[in-house]
Write a structure and sequence with these properties.
Structural class: alpha+beta
Strand content: 5-15%
Mean pLDDT: 80
Order of helices and strands: HHHHEEHHEEEEHHEEEHH
Number of strands: 9
Radius of gyration: 30 Å
Helix content: 40-55%
Number of helices: 10
Distance between the termini: 79 Å
Largest sheet: 5 strands, antiparallel
């Protein structure tokens, strides 16, 4: 086999092995790697380079080395899950930089952080005055997190004693022109409703780049153009009442289909029919 072809095959083999090893070791970002994981990454990368280019030795020994490093790394990761002492050695511990509003110079020196670097990190957290900080810690990943003093913390509904209703995450119901059936069903809507709403917005289904339904049942459509987000015009109180009645009627009918007894089923479907009649009579006034 010619040398260049051997190098190509070795390199492709290294890529496949590195991909599998990376999947096995997890998907932490570079900033989240512990010291041992960082060393492991560098070492495995060097071994992969050796496998690709060192044609004078038995190349398969490189895969043995990668396998050994992988087993050791995975073993230590599982060990750190079980032992706090091992976790402290392998991953390190956080360092307090500001306590009770005072900068701890000794800990800054220990982590080799200058005041300029500390102030820069605080500015990234939208804090421009050290006196506003009650507590700051450098995490194992190198990121600095902080707690503002009570008087400098943003006002929240909980501070005012307000009880807020629960909010659920928006459901993505269309992507690249394709309807995602499972998220759509979880919102209580169906494909017919979705196509009706798109028709009201004068948007073809194949033109939809992204469509989401929020916890209020409102559809937001992105076409991927400069037109921005397309959403139905804000409804009047009468239109909201009509939509609520229609949703209730639909819910009664759906619950009736899954009723546990014939009596319960008939009661729910009867409510659905009566409500449908009310909607038909009131619809001219509620549009």
């Amino acid at each position: 086999m010619s040398l260049w072809l051997e190098i190509i095959l070795r390199t492709l083999s290294s890529v496949v092995v590195l991909f599998l090893v990376t999947k096995l070791l997890g998907k932490r970002q570079i900033s989240q790697l512990s010291l041992f994981e960082y060393i492991t990454g560098i070492t495995i990368g060097n071994i992969a380079g050796y496998i690709s280019l060192d044609t004078d030795t038995e190349w398969y020994l490189g895969f043995v080395a990668i396998g050994t490093w992988t087993i050791v790394s995975v073993g230590i990761e599982f060990w750190t899950l079980k032992s706090r002492w091992v976790r402290g050695i392998a991953d390190g511990q956080g360092t307090v930089l500001i306590k009770n509003g005072s900068i701890l110079e000794t800990n800054l020196f220990k982590e080799r952080i200058t005041l300029d670097e500390l102030l820069e990190q605080l500015r990234k957290k939208s804090v421009f005055k050290v006196a506003e900080v009650e507590f700051a810690v450098m995490e194992k990943s190198g990121e600095i997190n902080l707690l503002l003093k009570k008087e400098n913390q943003p006002l929240t509904p909980a501070m005012l004693g307000w009880k807020m209703s629960k909010e659920t995450e928006p459901q993505t119901v269309m992507m690249d022109g394709e309807v995602l059936q499972e998220p759509l069903r979880s919102t209580g809507k169906d494909e017919q409703w979705l196509r009706h709403e798109l028709a009201k917005l004068k948007v073809k289904p194949e033109s939809v780049f992204l469509a989401q339904i929020d916890d209020q049942g409102q559809l937001d459509v992105q076409t991927g153009s400069q037109d921005g987000s397309l959403a139905p015009a804000k409804q009047t109180a009468r239109q909201q009442l009509l939509q609520t009645l229609q949703q209730c009627e639909s819910d009664f009918e759906q619950f009736g289909r899954f009723a546990r007894s014939e009596e319960e089923r008939e009661a729910l479907l009867s409510c659905s029919r009566q409500l449908k009649q009310v909607i038909r009579q009131a619809q001219p006034e509620l549009k």
